[in-house]
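A brief tutorial aside. Many learners find it easier to grasp structure tokens once they have seen a single protein encoded end to end. The record that follows does exactly this for Histidinol-phosphate aminotransferase. Read the sequence first, then the structure, and try to relate runs of similar tokens to stretches of the chain.
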Amino acid sequence: MIKPLSYVKKIQPYIPGKPVKEVERELGIKECIKLASNENPVGPSPKVIEAIKDLISKPVELARYPEGSGYYLKNALCDLFAKKGITLTHDEIILGNGSNELIDIAVRTYIGPGDEAVMANPSFVVYAMSVISQGGVAKEVPLKNWRHNLEGMLNEVTDKTKIIFIANPNNPTGTINYKEEFDKFIKALPENILIIMDEAYYEYVTDPEYPDTLKYFKEDKDILILRTFSKAYGLASLRIGYGIAKKEIITEMNRIREPFNTNTIAQIAAEAALKDEEHLKKVLEINEKGKDYLYKELDKISSIKYLPTQTNFIYIVLPENTTSKEVFDFLLKQGVIVRPVGPKQIRVTIGLPEENKSFIEAFKKFLGG
């Protein structure tokens, strides 16, 4: 039997949150609630639905390959940033099958066997998976006070370092690093290292000290800013995201990007989503109200700790005598799916009011409250 590359054997396959249908089928539960994958509980804009309906009413469009360059979606993104006073060109944007694919493309572009990438732990597990898949070395730096230890990450930089990954806000903690920290970090970082800023939860951030990473892009830094339509825009099933970087970086990544990597439905849906600012505002308002409710209820549980979040999920540290598997299994039987993210930690997506209430009731039941 043919054997894989030695470093492929080192990769732990990604395990997604359990699907609702699977839980309902396995446990015989109806109307299960999924709060495991940080999905948007409201769903996409009605304008997205209309755009998709219009597209599929023309069968020949489904028979054709997608717009390979993503021309119209890139136009919409340029318009969005122009409203914020930022001039972008198509050459500074790359589209991906979710921002996940863009992580992989960047790694395949800049990492080879023996090259190093620095990242936080815990953070998004795909960073290490992508690096190891290329024969690279993933150097993980523990968080400090639940946030990226930027100084510690700098200390791990060597002449073999090609990429530094920073998730801001971080997944799974929901925490951010601030403007002043980033200014110092960028100034101290040696040249010829690509900073990948994963801003999947950018739209949810309310903290005024959140860094404007486009500033570094405009200063011609080697930075790739990743954003997605999977979270606040509610298009997770369509897999569409984008990256912003200077032309030279995008040009090199496009050598690796597969043709037609983003499908027609996803492109049209994302374009429509960008045009409905009111729906996005509604999504964010519902998230803030849900966050406030969960804070209030979790504050009543003295045996646990949670981290204030800048995202659509909350990171909870469980009591000393409790494991995340115990909580996960119990909540599953109650029809609530959460995400274990450590031996004693769970991550809970902020849902609709009734979903948040169901989680709190089931969680308190487990804790005996």
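Self-check: The chain has a mean pLDDT of 96. If you spotted this yourself, you are ready for the next section.
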